[in-house]
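Input/output pair, single chain:
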Amino acid sequence: MHKRTKVMILLACLAGLRVHEIAKVRGEHFDLVGRTFTVVGKGGHRSTLPLHPLLVEIAWTMPRKGHWFPANSTRSGHVLPRSVGTIIKQVMVRAGVPGTAHSLRHWYGTTLVDSDVDLRTTQELLRHASLATTQIYTKIADHRKANGVDRLDPFRSASSSDSGGAA
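Output:
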């Protein structure tokens, strides 16, 4: 796998970036000492987010200035977002992984929740305006549902209940 392809996939999986956000990544967006980066998202909205340790490591090997994924010689600026999506999709097909580049963003959100990150924090990391959108992105595993049900204690004494007893 080419280095730039690996970096694109890591940005999708470990930062939850959209393909158009990946396309526009610049070296200036990263504070490697502070382990943060700035994302220019939908509507030009800027967010500063924490960097996963693997992204910090790979960022040290990338340009400090300018686009990480420059356009080819016929265009200036950054690679097209659809090209990022195609590159990631081709790797997924070769690896036998179903889905699209955007599926990696869903994986990011679901994995955060599955790792006991609360939904509100997950919303911030995904940069969703609405918690309802975050809920769409996150799937709850059956074992988490079963664990939740297992925590119910119908024999808990009324004095230990916040609600003052059973309904």
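The chain has one domain: 3-150. The radius of gyration is 20 Å.
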